Amino acid sequence: MSKQDAEGQVLAQLAEVVGCSPLAREPLSAEQSSELARVFKAMGDPVRLRLLSLIASHAGGEACVCDLTDVFDLSGPTISHHLKVLREAGLITGERRGTWVYYRVRPELLAQVATVLEPAASDALPVVEA
Amino acid sequence: MSKQDAEGQVLAQLAEVVGCSPLAREPLSAEQSSELARVFKAMGDPVRLRLLSLIASHAGGEACVCDLTDVFDLSGPTISHHLKVLREAGLITGERRGTWVYYRVRPELLAQVATVLEPAASDALPVVEA
DNA sequence: CCCCTGATTCGACGGCTGTCAAGGTAGACG
DNA sequence: CGTCTACCTTGACAGCCGTCGAATCAGGGG
Fold this sequence. Notes:
homodimer, three-stranded antiparallel sheet, 6 helices, 3 strands, DNA-binding, DNA-binding (chains A, B), HTH_ArsR_DNA-bd_dom (chains A, B), Metalloregulator ArsR/SmtB family transcription factor (chains A, B), WH-like_DNA-bd_sf (chains A, B)
């Protein structure tokens, strides 16, 4: 619950601070770049990035921790640590159902991040605008 | 020159390895996630992210190092270090013209990264398709 | 109630990273 | 040539980060 709130706040902060301002439109403020960097930092690890893709592409949009652990040559605690980092960055959410814990991605956050990146490409790739 | 080649190879590798495979479509391989993580890691620092936006949004699409250094309360070598990280990640390119060195972003790489992120959002936000 | 499994937290350790001061290189200008 | 400015490289150091083993927490059955 408090954990859920914290996750929600991360997303809300990102939405508020970053908004839809494209990277190439205007320079990021110190605050904006700190918020955004937190997300990129979380994605800046091969294991976490793979975890993210495993969860995102898993059937039903969610994956149990035990499914994820088997994929890597890493200890349980290490996987748990990486999942925590992703959670605290607002990229995924975790829910306990009985014995198992299921994780799913937050598509909204990924969409926001993509929005920040994309317009920079519009200088190179012509985009049809309304 | 060898430096330029190295930068080009990073981009080529990313293009080859990552391609246009969306995050939520299928799980990333260990190799793919390592390549992608390298880029996210480079963006996972507030200073570097801000440098990136400063360069991207600067008039003419390029910025001189001296323009960038003044923005931060950081020493010259530190800025130079961050620029090197961004360069080795394939996110920017540097060119010396006389006394000054000018940096500009690689929109292609940003576009590719955005492509990897975006399709995950299409599950949440309805998208109009042709 | 005790144990068994799944998952997280804790404590510790090695390696990586951001930072700076000092020194080095490249080009411009006399 | 000498020197000045712009930028980079090196070396060093503190702090962070990924990893593990051990301990701990949460449920589900005997």
